[in-house]
Amino acid sequence: MPKLPNVKGKTLLKILEKEGYLLDHIQGSHHILRRQDGKKTTIPIHGSKDMPKGTLLGILTDLDISKDEFFLLLKKKK
């Protein structure tokens, strides 16, 4: 399985919004997303910085998205 790619917070935010997550609220530089089924997560938006791999993996785990599913979502975005 390939390594997780470098992803910016804004990119991840756009991907998740296309998958049905809605912006619940913003607290500082953190965007809190929620979906109708109750799943929610926090996306840090820190300008043009790439998101740390551990943070990205934690977000994917919170949302029950596997690495393979994430790669498909990235390809679908392009």
From TrEMBL:
InterPro entries, per the entry: HicA_mRNA_interferase, HicA_sf
Keyword terms, alphabetized: Endonuclease, Hydrolase, Nuclease, RNA-binding, Stress response, Toxin-antitoxin system
MF-aspect GO terms: endonuclease activity; hydrolase activity; mRNA binding
Family: Belongs to the HicA mRNA interferase family.
PANTHER family, alphabetized: ADDICTION MODULE TOXIN, HICA FAMILY (PTHR34873:SF3), SSR1766 PROTEIN (PTHR34873)
Record-given protein name: Addiction module toxin, HicA family
Lineage of the organism: Bacteria, Candidatus Nomuraibacteriota
